[in-house]
Amino acid sequence: MTDPRSGRQLTITARGYRAEIASIGATLRALTFEGRDLVIPFDADEVRPAHRGATLAPWPNRIVDGRYAFGGATHQLALTEPARSHALHGLVTWLDFAVREIADDRVVLAAVIQPQAGYPFRVEVQVEYSVDATGLHQRVTGRNLGADAAPWGTGPHPYLTAGDEHVDDTELLLPASEVLTVTADRLSPVALEPVDAHPEWDFRTPRRIGDTFIDHAFTGLQRDARGAAVVRLRGASGAGVEMVWDAGCPWVQVHTADLPDPVASRRGLAVEPMTCPPDAFNSGTDLIVLQPGAAHTAGWSIRAL
Description:
By secondary structure, the protein is mostly beta strands. It is built from one helix and 27 strands. The strands form seven sheets. A nine-stranded antiparallel β-sheet has the order 10-11-12-13-27-23-22-17-20, with no helix packed on it. A hairpin with a 2-residue loop joins strand 7 (67-70) and strand 8 (73-76).
């Protein structure tokens, strides 16, 4: 019997939380709390739509034109976002991750990025998912197995949902004071600006999203005494979902999931904590450089409200 299109299926549960993990892309395929969806799911035998729930590495978001310089050489990646001519969301989204550990409430998967055109580095990517009374927790570790330093960044790609509402009808808390503006046609980074100059993207005080289009990276995140940043989404009923992460991710990409299909469009809100901003392989902003043998771990959590 062959695996479904999204790969081997793994289920972990604890204290009302149930997460469905698919091995292709170490993907969070579904997440519920007491039967209520916290992310927009997709079917096990479906080719994952719109990077829904995928793990992003060795970079999140876009590398403009798929071209960057590192270690004294210029590299050209495949343009995996051809309509905008960018390299999008890394190299592991379609890798089949092997299962290293599995328990009722925890699973660890791993895959190796082999040296290739555009990224001539060997990096092992380990992804751990666990659930407990406080929600779902994901940790991504990149370990450099090669002899040369390697550029690295990571993040997740869940589409959060507060219930049956489209995002227009939900209330968003996004405690970020700065937004990375982008070009309208290609979403290429332009400049980091205060949200005071762009009130349409200022959600530091919770408010309804309405028809606002968002597909931007934010930083200047307000954090609590533990250093945690929190993005919250609430529906009209008061039920909701939040994503929490520490200072290891100084950026978050937020996208209102505007799609050509009106049925699927704006159903969930992509909230993507990131270790670096879009095009960090070129800007160098918050770019992690993995030395040979070194490892880097970042993590985030999703929980019901």
